[in-house]
């Protein structure tokens, strides 16, 4: 069996809030390359043969349902299950098991909702099937693995340990990390305890390994990005526009820029590095925008310079203002001649007068 027909998408947890902008944490519904981020993952799953997706969330389903509905626009059947209290990753998976129609031995795709990746889902299923594993995990290599789940494997790719967020240097035994996409044999999902929080990373995987279960790793070097910070979210959006992160859901041709219908861009404005301009946004004369996401209805006044930043829906950036590696919240108004840099986050609706914030000297 080289296809998983069903998938569970994890979008919830304690740390996530419902603010309309990525000021705290990336929101699955914030547009990346013009469409809510989750669209890319859903479209990629569909392209790999998935037909039925259960969205396991601890938010209100009202966040997702108005946009994705029953999933038919994406060629999917999507169901929504909301936890009353966050059940953790494993608890969330178990909580939706009754929605699955797959047989006991069939493969079910499970994936974290905050990852942008070029994972070949069918290759992961093929690895899973060929190895006869109970669970197969997509692994990637990172320079600093401390914020992730470490997953050492033996010469055959079999997982030998799962160490979530290692705390001591001795625990850093590999640079291979859990990339947040799994193929579960369906019957393994049914063994996760019901009705209480369970972490798949801290409890289920180590427990399975201790009981002798077969966990198989598939390491590759495909595009992979954890969108855990606003900075990463902006990077991911730009990589989608550039075509570095493959997604069938990018609404247009990939390249240096993506300008959505009804946006207006002055003839001499320069958009590069995977910049996206959302619907109804306006870019003034001489503005230079690189690697950034300008969301719907935002206004960039003449001469502003925006780099690696996110400008929220309906926000306004004044003339000659510099925004570099920053997030400007929905509806915020930044006056002319400001300098916003270095990870700065301007809260939604904030008003900054002209020349209110500068980094460089007055001279
Ligand atoms: N429904 C639901 N309920 N979803 C949850 C819950 C929950 O209680 N808790 C977390 N999630 C979802 C998150 O929304 C996210 O999509 C995914 O599960 C992973 O949770 P994070 O909170 O983002 O975990 P992390 O980023 O610290 O670590 C995870 O991802 C890394 C890769 O980015 C782990 O899986 C690591 O092992 C992995 O390396
Ligand atoms: Mg995460």
What do you see in this structure?
The chain has 363 residues and is an alpha/beta fold. The protein folds into 2 domains: 6-226, Spore Coat Polysaccharide Biosynthesis Protein SpsA, Chain A, CATH 3.90.550.10; 256-352, Hexapeptide repeat proteins (UDP N-Acetylglucosamine Acyltransferase, domain 1, 3 Solenoid), CATH 2.160.10. Helix content is 17%, strand content 28%. The protein contains 7 helices and 30 strands. It has helices spanning 37-47, 65-68, 88-95, 121-131, 186-189, 200-210, 230-242, and strands at residues 6-11, 31-32, 35-36, 52-57, 77-82, 107-112, 115-117, 135-141, 149-150, 163-164, 176-185, 215-219, 224-226, 257-259, 264-265, 270-272, 275-277, 282-283, 288-290, 293-294, 299-300, 305-307, 310-311, 316-317, 322-324, 327-328, 333-334, 339-340, 345-346, 351-352. It has a 7-stranded mixed sheet, sandwiched between helices. Strands 14-17-20-23-26-29 form a 6-stranded parallel sheet. A hairpin with a 2-residue loop joins strand 2 and strand 3 (35-36). It is elongated, with a radius of gyration of 22 Å. The protein starts with 5 loop residues before the first strand and ends in an 11-residue tail after the last strand. Mean pLDDT is 93; it is low at 16-20 and 22-26. It binds guanosine-5'-diphosphate-alpha-D-mannose (GDD) and magnesium ion (MG). Guanosine-5'-diphosphate-alpha-D-mannose (GDD) is lined by residues 10-13, 15-16, 56-58, 83, 86-89, 92, 112-115, 148-149, 164, 177-178, 180, 201, 226, 228.
């Amino acid at each position: 069996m080289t296809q998983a027909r069903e998938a569970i998408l994890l979008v919830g947890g304690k740390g996530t809030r419902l603010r309309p902008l990525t000021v705290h944490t990336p929101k699955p519904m914030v547009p990346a390359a013009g469409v809510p981020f989750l669209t890319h993952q859903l479209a990629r799953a569909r392209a790999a043969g998935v037909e039925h997706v259960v969205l396991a969330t601890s938010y209100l389903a009202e966040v997702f349902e108005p946009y994705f509905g029953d999933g038919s626009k994406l060629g999917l059947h999507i169901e929504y299950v909301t936890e009353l209290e966050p059940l953790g990753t494993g608890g969330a998976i178990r909580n939706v098991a009754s929605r699955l129609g797959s047989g006991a031995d069939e493969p079910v795709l499970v994936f974290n909702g905050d990852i942008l990746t070029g994972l070949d889902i069918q290759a992961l299923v093929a690895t899973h099937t060929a190895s006869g594993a109970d669970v197969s995990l997509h692994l990637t290599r990172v320079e600093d693995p401390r914020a992730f789940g470490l997953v050492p494997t033996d010469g055959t790719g079999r997982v030998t340990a799962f160490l979530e967020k290692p705390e001591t240097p001795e625990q850093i035994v590999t640079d291979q990390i859990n990339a947040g996409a799994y193929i579960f044999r369906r019957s393994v999902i049914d063994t996760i305890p019901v009705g209480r929080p369970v972490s798949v990373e801290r409890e289920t995987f180590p427990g399975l390994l201790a009981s002798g279960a077969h966990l198989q790793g598939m390491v590759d070097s495909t595009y992979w990005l954890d969108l855990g910070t606003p900075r990463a979210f902006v990077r991911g959006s730009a990589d989608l526009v550039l075509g570095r992160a493959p997604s069938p859901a990018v609404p247009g041709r990939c390249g240096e820029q993506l300008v959505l219908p009804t946006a207006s861009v002055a003839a001499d404005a320069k958009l590069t590095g995977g910049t996206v301009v959302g619907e109804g946004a306006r870019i003034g004369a001489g503005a230079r925008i690189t690697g950034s996401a300008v969301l719907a209805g935002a206004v960039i006044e003449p001469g502003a310079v925006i780099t690696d930043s996110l400008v929220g829906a309906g926000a306004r950036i004044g003339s000659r203002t510099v925004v570099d590696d920053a997030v400007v919240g929905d509806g915020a108004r930044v006056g002319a001649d400001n300098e916003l840099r270095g990870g700065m986050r301007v809260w939604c609706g904030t008003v900054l007068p002209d020349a209110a914030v500068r980094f460089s000297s007055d001279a």
